[in-house]
Automatic annotation (TrEMBL):
Coiled coil: none annotated. The lineage of its organism: Bacteria, Pseudomonadati, Pseudomonadota, Betaproteobacteria, Burkholderiales. Residues 1-33 form the signal peptide. This is ABC transporter substrate-binding protein. Residues 37-363 form the Leucine-binding protein domain. Belongs to the leucine-binding protein family. Keywords: Signal.
Amino acid sequence: MIEQKISVSVRVRHTLSSAALLTVLGCGSTAYAQTTYNIAGIADFTGPFADVMKDITGCRRGVLDWWNEEVGKSLGVTLKVKEYDARYDVAQVASLWPGIKAELNPIAVWGLGGPDSNALQQRLPNDKVPLLLGTAGYGFAWKDGSWVFNARATYPHEAAGFYAWYQKKMGGGPLKVGVISSEVSPAYVDIHKGVERFAKDNPQILEVVETIYTEAQPTDLTQQVNRLLRKGATVIQVFNNTASVVATRRALQSLGKGNIPIVVSAHNGLLSSGKALGDLNQMEGSFEVYGMAIATEDPSTARAFFEKLRTQYKTQANFTSPCMMGLAMSLLTVRAVEQVVKVKGPAGVTGADVRTALQTNPTPSERTFGVLPNIKFSNEAPFPTSGLAVNIGTIEKGKYKLVEKNAPVPNVNKW
């Protein structure tokens, strides 16, 4: 069982049980020492994503509990995670990292998003440790030779997939989109810059009427949302956090425009936003979009795997989109470790080995229990760049449902 206390560590230790030792000495047969590798986890227990962190970290730990028992034990490898609270803040991540690395010597880092990527992407090549994220990618990291791996393409890629689908669904002219964003994180800025570039390149699909900047935890956005509506916005994009979704939805309701849909991502999805609003029905008619499985109640291999973690391994989490992100990054990690161990054995696994395995071994969807589509990384970008598709969820008559599966993503140019 993985320790419940959260910190970040990667000490490698070798242990050999007395029974195994007797076997080796008495029978002359071989037996692997159980080798433990630690994974550095970045968490946010006191910042803007504290409300969804239990599901992310719980599902990350659940994967290790399962893998250690059903896969790692036979390979002679145990994986452990310790996590630090970095508050989704670039400066905090940068400040903590030297101590984390010295304490843990990790073979991999699990992050949350833009602050981690922004703080560490220049350091990781020298430190030889890959960073894995369950989030979408970022334009500022779109370059070759990266040590950052996003399970999904960029947020603008995912948004583009939604807008191309929704524009066809509405059957009219270009969509008029209002964007709620913030400058508190480079990730938020990157998202709206990418969407603005996509709109400029594809005026037949959408027009961004305005991008509104707000604080990290807004409480009242009535004036700002009213300005977007006066400019003709028919859909509002909120890809920053749950608090921003709540403030936007309340503003729409107070203005008598509750029929205007909001489009959100996985980290501030419909379930978590509905919970924050006190009633899932409050998100009726809105949408979420991302390149991984939608966490609905419908039968799926992803849900079956989660139920196994919950019932057999006592995973303390809910089946939500944040949980799916936790599953995505951790499953990619353990599958990469498997590839390394099969080649070189259980001893001496390094972060560089894990990165090489990620880049050279495609991960079929069934290897992530349908959490992700077929994944293939290359050296040209830190995220998948070919065969892209997104899933789209909505709230319809109070029911959380998948409304579109594998909607194709149009071409998105760098911004």
